[in-house]
Amino acid sequence: MKCPDKIIEWMHDYLDGDIVPDHEKALREHLQHCPECSHHFNSLKKTVAFIQHASHLAPPSDFTKNVMAKLPKEKKRVRIGRWLKNHPFITAASLFVALTVGSLFTTWNQGQQFSVSTRENVVIQGHTVIVPKGKTVDGDIVVRNGTIKIEGKVNGNVTVIHGEKYLASAGQVTGEVEEINEVFDWVWYNIKSVVKDLFE
């Protein structure tokens, strides 16, 4: 016959010192007539006595160090994964930079179409942009996959990407003249453009 669950609860209450007198009396009577519960109760008392005795023992000072040294070494992939989880902002920023640089490299390799940023006061012949003598272009000129000849005046910057620039001796450019034929120059040019747009 199975003993009621309240007997086990009373055992724990007794060992914790929280048992009420009526329950203690009923528990004692039950333990006198039930060998299984009596055996279980004695085991619990021995466990409590052992824990109380062991609580006074102190481990050696290098106990933690010795245990950690005996643990198997963590795999590098797990360590990197934990670091990434603990530093989400750095992870997100790194991923953003990697994707941005990757897209710039892709754009650099695929952008083979001729284009020019302005049509005002310029003449386009094939893939050549000409600022004629006596004409003035107000603003920046960006030429992609072509060449530029400046015989007049440009009030701004001139940038040639994947091409060449020919400046006539009489030509004047008030801003910077830049020729971009290297991928790292292209990346730097795009970074500068983004920063400039943000500040404007």
From TrEMBL:
Transmembrane regions listed in the UniProt entry: 89-108
Keywords linked to the UniProt accession: Membrane, Transmembrane, Transmembrane helix
Stretches assigned to the Putative zinc-finger domain: 5-37
InterPro entries: Anti_sigma_zinc_sf, Znf_put
Keyword Secreted in annotation: no
Keyword Membrane: yes
Protein name: Anti-sigma-W factor RsiW
Family: Belongs to the zinc-associated anti-sigma factor (ZAS) superfamily. Anti-sigma-W factor family.
Organism: Anoxybacteroides tepidamans
